[in-house]
Amino acid sequence: MGPISFEERMATVDFRVGSRPHITVETEICRSCTTRACVVCCPANLFVPTADGGILFNYEQCFECGTCYVVCNRSGAITWTYPDGGHGVAFRRS
Amino acid sequence: MREASDVDAVVVGAGPAGSAAALVLARAGRNVVLLERGPFPGSKNMYGGVVYGRILDGLVPDWYRQAPVQRYVTRRSTMILTDDAALTVDFRSGKWGREPYNGVTAFRPDFDAWLADQAVAAGALLVCETTATGLLRQDGRVVGVTTDRPDGELRADVVIACDGVNSFLAKEAGLHTAEGSAHLTLGAKETLALPRELIEQRFGVRGRDGVDIEILGGTSGIAGGGFLYTNLDSVSVGVVLSLDGLSRQKARPEELIARLKAHPAIAPLVEGGELLEYSAHLIPEGGYDTMPALAASGLLVAGDAAGMCLAAGIWLEGVNFAIGSGAAAGQVAADALSRGDTSMAQLGAYRAALETNFVLADHAKLRRAPHLVLSDRVQQRYPQMMCDLVEAMFTVDNPRPKPGLARLARRAAKANGVRLRDLARDAVTAARTFG
């Protein structure tokens, strides 16, 4: 069995995506960041560097672990809340 | 004058801590609401992954006949990995395979839902799909929570925050003092499907017996470790990573799992396993010295929200500490309610209760362990040194005669930059910590 793609990896997880983005990223603040710890650490790989030095973020396949805001050293870059009740990740076999 | 409470108690989070707290309160005849933000209890939870059940005996006496157990752990291995070597201490116990059992593997969405059911059966009101968004406060005390439901204020004489490692409620109450990321690790895991018979062959177990392998090393120089354990017809393999190390090394969590799975000591055990679920969670590993204050007027904190995971190298536990602290919080809250006073004067008894049982006794005793276990010497140098030594001991290098063991030990220490005085100092720290 060959290695699976990241998309296939994330497809094993049940997400009940809510309409409200529970995490938002201020890409303007990210431009001044040199560490980019979120890009490396987010286990769901949701932080994508853009060509213009910002960060593209999508909340839909988030594990709600909290790693991104903990490793972020730019105040105000990440606004982090839990998804609205009933939404977000729903593990089954973990 | 305070507004009347809607209920006696609100427990936030239906994980092991919250369900234990709600169970105790309900059995004490209290009107308790158990809030869960997920669609069902356990839906937000993963771990790495043994439930030690002795603490459950007092709450649900025959839990091991009812709980959704994957396997009963009868074989516990501690494995030290270097790039291409492994040194394993492997222990089996027949006793652990018989009632009342020692530890079990379980899927948390199953196990947590089962424990929440016990609280419901005792009379707690479980409300899922409801996120607690903040604390209600009045006259310097907590008087309830706000939720994301319409008219979502819920007033209670006591709130028990079991809202997990991120515990925004305890933070809002100002109970946390530990800043930054040093006390947190990231756990990332794959659950891999394998036929039951193949698991029995590979891991050397029969029936419902199971294996738990805890791994030091194998994380590409990032402080942390790994784990591999058996479920009924799947295995779970994962890594635990210091956040600081992870951001420095520029290696991604799933890559590190892949590297662990490719290690010659691990690959034959997981080969061919099809990914059933990928998951991740933060772990509060800092121990005693990074715990928040555990109580405020009208508020108690338990489980991961109180930083109660025990990450002491040879012992890695969390669910039992969550249940132990949650049950104690429930009891203290019930006692305080019966006295009609849920101010700090009564809730302060919570800390004392935890100090007299294993929860804070273990944490206080092992308070130096997290620092020692995550040190560079324990993470890198000692594992390599021990594997070098054992490799040299058992490499037959004829026609050369066998070298003396003392010389081999000195050579292995020197090659890995281990100085005798560091070794002696760490041995003293370890003896004080674990002795």
Task: Give a brief description.
With 94 residues, chain A is α+β, with helices and mostly antiparallel strands. Chain A has helices spanning 6-10, 27-30, 37-41, 67-71; strands at residues 14-16, 23-25, 47-49, 55-57, 78-80, 88-90.
Describe this structure in words.
The complex is a heterodimer of chains A (94) and B (435). By secondary structure, chain A is α+β, with helices and mostly antiparallel strands. Chain A has 4 helices and 6 strands, in the order H-E-E-H-H-E-E-H-E-E. Chain A has helices at 6-10, 27-30, 37-41, 67-71, and strands spanning 14-16, 23-25, 47-49, 55-57, 78-80, 88-90. Chain A has a two-stranded antiparallel ribbon with strand order 1-6. A two-stranded antiparallel ribbon of chain A has the order 2-5. A two-stranded antiparallel ribbon of chain A has the order 3-4. In chain A, strand 3 and strand 4 (55-57) form a beta hairpin. Chain A is globular and about 40 Å long. The mean pLDDT of chain A is 95. Chain B has helices at 16-27, 54-57, 63-66, 108-121, 168-172, 196-203, 243-249, 253-262, 267-270, 319-339, 344-347, 349-356, 358-365, 369-373, 376-394, 405-415, 420-434, and strands at residues 7-12, 32-35, 51-52, 71-81, 86-92, 103-105, 125-127, 132-138, 141-147, 153-161, 184-193, 209-216, 224-230, 234-242, 274-284, 295-296, 299-301, 310-312, 315-317. The longest helix of chain B has 21 residues, at 319-339. The model of chain B has no long low-confidence stretch (mean pLDDT 96). Classes of the chains: A alpha+beta (94), B alpha+beta (435). Chains A and B meet through helix 1, helix 3, helix 4 and strand 6 of A and strand 11, helix 7, helix 8 and strand 15 of B.
